[in-house]
Amino acid sequence: MMPDDMSRPLVRGGGAGGGAGGGSWGLEATSCEPGDPLIGILGTGDFARSLARRLVASGYHVVVGSRNPKRCSSVFPEDTEVTSQVEAVTHADLIFVAVFPEHHSTLLPLKPVLVRKTLVDVSNGLRMNRAGPSNASLLADMFPESCVVKGFNTISAWTLQVGPRDGSRQVFLCSDHHRAKNCVMQICRRIGFVPVDMGLLSSALDVENLPFHLFPSWHVPVLCTLSLFVFFYLYNFLHDVLHPFVKEGKSVFYRMPVETLNTTLPSVALVMLALVYLPGLCAAFLQLRRGTKYRRFPSWLDRWLTRRKQFGLCSFLCAALHAVYSLCLPLRKSARYALLAAAVRQVSDGVEDAWVDEDVWRMELYLSAGIMALGLLSLLAVTSLPSVSSATNWREFSFIQSSLGYCALFMATLHTLLFGWDRAFQADRYHFNLPPTFVLVLLLPLLVLLGRVALFLPCVALRLRRIRRGWQKNQHVRFTRLNDGVEDVSNV
Amino acid sequence: MMPDDMSRPLVRGGGAGGGAGGGSWGLEATSCEPGDPLIGILGTGDFARSLARRLVASGYHVVVGSRNPKRCSSVFPEDTEVTSQVEAVTHADLIFVAVFPEHHSTLLPLKPVLVRKTLVDVSNGLRMNRAGPSNASLLADMFPESCVVKGFNTISAWTLQVGPRDGSRQVFLCSDHHRAKNCVMQICRRIGFVPVDMGLLSSALDVENLPFHLFPSWHVPVLCTLSLFVFFYLYNFLHDVLHPFVKEGKSVFYRMPVETLNTTLPSVALVMLALVYLPGLCAAFLQLRRGTKYRRFPSWLDRWLTRRKQFGLCSFLCAALHAVYSLCLPLRKSARYALLAAAVRQVSDGVEDAWVDEDVWRMELYLSAGIMALGLLSLLAVTSLPSVSSATNWREFSFIQSSLGYCALFMATLHTLLFGWDRAFQADRYHFNLPPTFVLVLLLPLLVLLGRVALFLPCVALRLRRIRRGWQKNQHVRFTRLNDGVEDVSNV
Amino acid sequence: MMPDDMSRPLVRGGGAGGGAGGGSWGLEATSCEPGDPLIGILGTGDFARSLARRLVASGYHVVVGSRNPKRCSSVFPEDTEVTSQVEAVTHADLIFVAVFPEHHSTLLPLKPVLVRKTLVDVSNGLRMNRAGPSNASLLADMFPESCVVKGFNTISAWTLQVGPRDGSRQVFLCSDHHRAKNCVMQICRRIGFVPVDMGLLSSALDVENLPFHLFPSWHVPVLCTLSLFVFFYLYNFLHDVLHPFVKEGKSVFYRMPVETLNTTLPSVALVMLALVYLPGLCAAFLQLRRGTKYRRFPSWLDRWLTRRKQFGLCSFLCAALHAVYSLCLPLRKSARYALLAAAVRQVSDGVEDAWVDEDVWRMELYLSAGIMALGLLSLLAVTSLPSVSSATNWREFSFIQSSLGYCALFMATLHTLLFGWDRAFQADRYHFNLPPTFVLVLLLPLLVLLGRVALFLPCVALRLRRIRRGWQKNQHVRFTRLNDGVEDVSNV
């Protein structure tokens, strides 16, 4: 059943230090480098140099193949042998191909010596979103008897040189040859990177396109934030700046940089926060209506569900900016001049104290609610940091993201309701017949909170619970049992 | 010495790509998948589906065993074979048991084909803090000739599907069968999770209870914060709100949402910060008194020492909220009305400038000290993020947590002392004969700072240093030598 | 080619659970512990105890060698065998040497039984920056027939006990014996740490000096921040506090704790931010002038380039403190007294409204620009957290650090320009003939922004692009081809 030659560990003759280690105890058969492979590098560019330096530093023996060995040897670390391409390839067990993909064909003369060797293609695509065949598959077509592994293209020469401190430590690898891929994975780990298996060489195009990605999961949330921002900014401009100018001829354009912005930011923040919890509600109601959880959600809902974190962080950014802008208000000259003018007016009117108790209470309450909401949002933002969330278990994570999240939404809505007080019912707040901004803003959050409360109704909650445990409408009980999946208290 | 059958690597006949990879070089014997195992999954629920999708995406061959293969095959990824339970189990090398634990007994007919196979029990307990035997040990009793591995119960179907981005990447595994556990570990790593070895199957109950944990290390610190909060809030309410109402009939209840809260928060923050450094002092003085470090601390002290980070973060949260509340003060209508009234009064009194130099200095100084304390606390909070602290070495970490921490405590205490100024000695500040809040608050921080200073006294410092290097009171010098442990500049 | 005895897996006779695991499927040959090694520990100090506890908890069999076994056995976990040194060493496969380095020589009698065994030296140097031979190499000289591995010295007993939660999880290992090192690496991983291969035993001195490092990459940036701080503080003191005192006899020393600090902090922040982007510009212009990227930068530039993140974070800290200080301004008694005095003056002057439109606009604009700059800097700071930046690919990281970074620099410069308005051209702002602070501060940022704009000029940009793809001045085209390195869109 087991071919003989598989148990034959082919240690390279002159292997470094292989035989020296303790031969008398139990971990013998274990691991990993019975002798380190001699690693070849074709190419003498920045990447080749940094790679050579890194490999040598991790204890590998490196031989560099160059068309012009004499000229290039000076730029490589001392322990590296720089020699002709043929010689390097002949000696090496595993070869990094660090030449531009358009020059891959210049390696064709090396074909005979490359048979059964591992070639690591580190090249990147030159254009974004290329469709054609990947560089790696072209290389594999050129050298069908070699084992081509795609990888390291997401790592810059800079990262190789200074170590994987900034940017990603992940090295995405794919290959049709398991063994070859495994060896490259081990090299990865040993030089301090984290290999990620991307499967067969057919994924090479994806891997080559990876470096061109620019926050793909943020496109929709950021676009959404910007659209809401533009909409609310224009609305507030109309309502608070243009209206007094048109109706009373009062020029208050100075409000645009701070005050209008500061009415816009919380509006965006609250609507975005509601958008974090809306898809979960949609999913729950869809499951309730369908009477099963075994039908896929529409794809827009699926995508939305996976983007909730990004929506939440956009919301937090707006909320935090809103806080700073609000705290800046009393700093401004305009606030100072207005205050002084009010003092003068109060003196000339002979009013000793203009205290309005309702005004005071309204403000104290909505300030406090706002700060609490910001505090909760900060906790949410902190726990969405990768290293923090990875230290929580699933129940903790869902507690924070769901319970704390709804608390934050509730506090933020309360903040806005208290800010509104009874102003929604005062006709003089409806400039140009448009309702004040907070009325528009409150629609969605209140809807989400009501929906959430609806899910707490015992009958609804029970039905949803059963559906999520696998129960299906219109189905025999026995069938339900057959779908005996482990419960998934799904995150939605 | 070595049984024959152990060296026999049983590679599955039709192993994928196993033989193809480079056979001519030195990493041959190394690693990991001479052929990938065929993985079976029993169960067709959410977890089973997500697991199948994930395994297939990582290049594994998956066969799903269902009681109703035809009905279920549509919901699994294309490359998955869905077949009867018997057939799946017969072919597979390793089987994930993804059925509810209460249905484990339905698998008994498969017993003969499960002999010597690995069963991974992914089930969770259904109740919190169960005491009884674990699901995994019950399964092991049912199938004594199979190798049961407990694990994956902390991973949700959602995480399996979208990848280990949110929540923990750790997969806790335990088993009495080393080899089986190792294989599951490798599968873990390959599909992107981090296996954590939890030892023998007797730990299965702990592993099954893991998902029910809800921030166990935070219980005491949060409870402590809340108790202090309630105490100080009531104290401040009595002192600042009820006293003027009772004594002068002045209704200042509007202070409750912001001002009273804002006196309470810094009190909690400072006391909590002192509680971070108190257990270290206790430990040091205990060691000094006992004259040895080789006796265990009482368990409450041990637990306290491990919770210091949580105490510190609670303190930081309160301090940050205090900062935001303070910055909000001039925003409030009440502040505006009070200022206007003061202006009117000043005009009617004919006072040109009411400048009091002492008041000005006091405030500038305590503001500055407070901001510095907040800055230092922020640094401490940032460095307690897992990814930041894991990038520091032990000396750096202890420098930050100890030196910077004491600086923060000193600045915060100074902030409070400057805030107090000479008010602790003014009789009219003692409402209801109760001292002002800051007097109460300062007791513990001053005690901690004094204790710390005491440890700096040369004689004390020397003795402590000797104790921490292993010296023991009342012991022969030779004995001390025998306890020749590597120095532990313990964190306390 | 392959010596026979290398394929002989020497499993220890009484190996725990080795034979039980599934023997019938494909992962047989794989991995790691065909039987766990019996681990010996010499020494009974804190480190030895914590290590023993940790190893036992991870399923290892541990035997402790003590000179006084009876006295010490009580402090070790139950499953640990405490016996004489000779006996422990005889049975164990791998021995942790946890005795003070000055007592290493007491182990010499054990020499015969230590032959071919692995010794892990966990000792630390006792002084900082020692030059002499490392403890590990001395140990290796003492026991030339054993395999000495250096490591675990960066791990404290505390970390071993509570698990690698705080501080670093990295265990730096070096040894001349590959196999021995690999086994220690596996033990590392199994007890929850991350082994880092540091190469041969000649690196042991570096490893032993590691725990003495105290933020080496922060020295220059922090020193730079402090120097700028002192310079600007003195300058501002002269300009804003001493000048009115000398010229008009006005004592405004109360400004020192808050106002002078608050003029100093943004100055430091902006200059430091400019210093983040200056080295990249220098590098680009150096490459343009040299006409090649294949000559090393001067070492100061190299070092500066690797410290940019630290410069940026220092800048952010100052900017954040500046924000808090600014927001505190209206809180102060001094602001209140000044405002009241202004109100009284305005009443007595009979001015109804002192509104100055230019003042208002200036302030609204520079506040808004400042908040935006702070927001961008916060984004930069968050993405420089290790766990966040490691989740971005290289293009995303460079987008944030370069594009967003220059945006932040631009907004911060705009903030300062708007703050300055036309005051740079008013003679009465030149106290003691010194220009106002913001004039000094603006020099460097404007220079950097101009330099960056210069690099956008088509001819310059094209040339730089070609150089970065490997083109060299004064070289034959064919030569350029020979330097066929993979493109490195270097980060500079």
From TrEMBL, chains A, B, C:
It is found in: Endomembrane system; Endosome membrane. Keywords: Endosome, FAD, Flavoprotein, Ion transport, Iron, Iron transport, Membrane, Metal-binding, Oxidoreductase, Transmembrane, Transmembrane helix, Transport. One of its GO terms (biological process) is copper ion import. InterPro entries: Fe3_Rdtase_TM_dom (IPR013130), P5C_Rdtase_cat_N (IPR028939), STEAP_metalloreductase (IPR051267). Its cofactor is FAD. Residues 12-25 have a biased composition (Gly residues). Its main location: membrane. GO terms for molecular function: cupric reductase (NADH) activity; ferric-chelate reductase (NADPH) activity; metal ion binding. The keyword Transmembrane helix applies. Residues 268-401 form the Ferric oxidoreductase domain. Residues 39-125 form the Pyrroline-5-carboxylate reductase catalytic N-terminal domain. Residues 1-27 are annotated as: Disordered. GO terms for cellular component: endosome membrane; plasma membrane. The chain crosses the membrane at residues 218-238, 265-286, 311-332, 365-385, 397-418, 438-464. It catalyses: 2 Cu(+) + NADP(+) + H(+) = 2 Cu(2+) + NADPH; 2 Fe(2+) + NADP(+) + H(+) = 2 Fe(3+) + NADPH. It is a multi-pass membrane protein. Belongs to the STEAP family. This is STEAP3 metalloreductase.
